[in-house]
Every structure is written in structure tokens, then in C-alpha cells.
Write a structure and sequence with these properties.
This protein is α/β, with parallel strands linked by helices. The chain has ten helices and nine strands. Bound molecules: pantoate.
Length: about 280
């Protein structure tokens, strides 16, 4: 495994790979890697000849300075895990390397990026598109692997890839959970043990909502999920929306779509830590 910090070195390393016709896979990450990332990396290593993992905390996708400052970072531990997983190249650039000049490009894919995370974190998806489009241009992967925890991010990245005409297949990978049901996230490191236990209620309630959905309306299930979670000391739901899995638009009846997903963001604990999760109804 080689660790590369410059775009030029990365392009030089990948040129012979491409000439020999080998396939290249990319796993974009912001580091602080956990088993969820490991599952994406394993697929990339298994399914592509050469696997590139980027580790870059992208400042342009943070709309909150404190969130950016407190985002966990540990490149050494990340590289150790990636070496064990058999990764070919780790790309860990500086901010100046990725953004030698401020990125003034704007990406807008309404209505997919205007709801939920798009509404709550203005500019977030623009920043995600800025960095992912750059990574796609630097690495030119055939396939790129993304975790389904960030359900809306996958839809936005797909829209961007189509818009820019990039020949990259976006591969969604299932959420990995702790035994308690808590979706793995780099932000979980910021939770105390007690908060972690409380946070596992998010998935418990989402699981229960699968049953409620058999007898109750979309509106009733939405309200019940929010009220169950908000009744737990230390949890505060930011939003829970039951949406069409393709358009990400809220549905009003279960029969409105063949693909239905409930997307949630909950604040947990003292700090508080912002946690996201989702559940598929059909
Ligand atoms: O999902 C993430 O970790 C980030 O949004 C991504 C895709 C690596 C872009 O910075």
C-alpha cells in the first residue's frame, strides 16, 4: 500500500494501471474509519484490480465551523486498517492540494438536494459535489463505493455523476450497525458510553416503525417515531421524513411509491452529536 498526498503523484501512480487495462475502484472517506468504511473498502478490494481510498476531511461540506473542528481525525490508525484490508493506494491530500484556489463551482439538483440534509445543512451537498467531482477527476475510477447511511448523499452524487457525464458506477453499500443497532458513524466516537446506549434507541424505534407501518398512515408513523425518540432524555429529533426512495420527496400514502425510505437525523447527548440513519419500508 502506498500513501500519496499530491494529485500529481496520484495521477503518476494510476497512469500505468490504466494503460494495463486494470479496473480502478474508489472509496471516498473523511477518515476516522470504522467497520462501516471497512465494508466498503472490502468490496472495493474484492471487485476492483486497484483500490484507492481517499482520506480527506472536506471543509467545503461543513456549514458549521465547530463541527469541522471537532470532526475526528486519525490518519495513522486509518492507514493501519487500510493496509490490513489490502488497499493499493491511500490518497490523503491537504486542503491546499485539493483546493489550490477556492472552489467557486455550484452544483444544484433540485428537488433531491433541497430536502432533509439539503434543507438543514445549506451548502453541504454543494461541498460534497465539489470534493467528489474532484476525486472522480483525479482518480477516474470505474466504480465508487458509498455507504447507504448517507442515503440522500448517494442520490445527489448519482445526479452529479449523470450531470457531468462521468463514467463512474456509484455502488451503494448497506449500513453496518453495532450489536445495539446503532448505525456506525465516525461521529459515534464523540459519544459517551451512556450517550451511545441512548443513541441505539434510534434504530430500535425505526425497527418498530416497520410494524406500525402495517396499520398506520404515513403521517401517524412519522409522528409516532418523532414522539417516541423525543421522549428519550438526551435525544432530539431534527427531522424524520418518509420519502420516495428515488426522488427523496415526502410521500403522503404508502401506495405513493414502490420505493419508500424513512430518513432521520437526531441530536444526541450534551455536545450534542448529530446522528443520521434510515430505514426502508419497501
Ligand atoms: O460520506 C462522506 O464521508 C463524505 O461526504 C465524502 C463522500 C467522503 C465526501 O467528503
Amino acid at each position: 500500500m502506498i500513501v500519496i498526498t499530491s494529485v500529481k503523484e496520484l495521477e503518476d501512480a494510476l497512469a500505468p494501471v490504466r494503460e494495463s487495462g486494470q479496473s480502478v475502484g474508489l472509496v471516498p472517506t473523511m477518515g476516522a474509519l470504522h467497520e462501516g468504511h471497512a465494508s466498503l473498502v472490502k468490496r472495493c478490494v474484492d471487485e476492483c484490480d486497484v483500490s484507492v481510498v481517499s482520506v480527506f476531511v472536506n471543509p467545503t461540506q461543513f456549514n458549521d465551523k465547530n463541527d469541522l473542528a471537532s470532526y475526528p481525525r486519525n490518519l495513522e490508525a486509518d492507514c493501519e486498517l487500510l493496509r490490513q484490508l489490502g488497499v493499493s493506494i491511500v490518497f490523503a491530500p491537504s486542503v491546499e492540494e485539493v483546493y489550490p484556489e477556492p472552489d467557486t463551482r455550484t452544483f444544484s439538483y433540485p428537488p433531491i438536494d433541497t430536502v432533509m440534509e439539503g434543507a438543514k445543512r445549506p451548502g453541504h451537498f454543494n461541498g460534497v459535489c465539489q470534493v467528489v467531482s474532484k476525486l472522480f477527476m483525479f482518480v477516474k475510477p470505474e466504480r465508487a463505493f458509498f455507504g447507504e447511511k448517507d442515503f440522500q448523499q448517494i442520490a445527489v452524487v448519482r445526479a452529479m455523476t449523470r450531470d457531468l457525464g462521468l463514467p463512474v458506477e456509484i455502488v451503494p453499500c448497506p449500513i453496518v450497525r453495532e450489536a445495539s443497532g446503532l448505525a456506525l458513524s465516525s461521529r459515534n466516537q464523540l459519544l459517551t458510553d451512556n450517550e451511545r446506549a441512548i443513541a441505539s434507541t434510534i434504530n430500535c424505534v425505526l425497527q418498530k416503525s416497520l410494524d406500525w407501518a402495517k396499520a398506520e398512515s404515513v403521517k401517524q408513523v412519522t409522528a409516532r417515531v418523532v414522539s417516541e425518540l423525543d421522549s428519550v432524555d438526551g435525544l432530539q429529533t431534527e427531522y424524520f421524513q418518509i420519502v420516495d426512495g428515488d426522488t427523496l420527496q415526502p410521500i403522503s400514502k404508502w401506495s405513493d411509491s414502490d420505493s419508500v425510505v424513512g430518513c432521520i437525523t437526531v441530536y444526541c447527548g450534551q455536545r450534542p452529536v448529530r446522528l443520521i440513519d434510515n430505514i426502508r419500508y419497501k
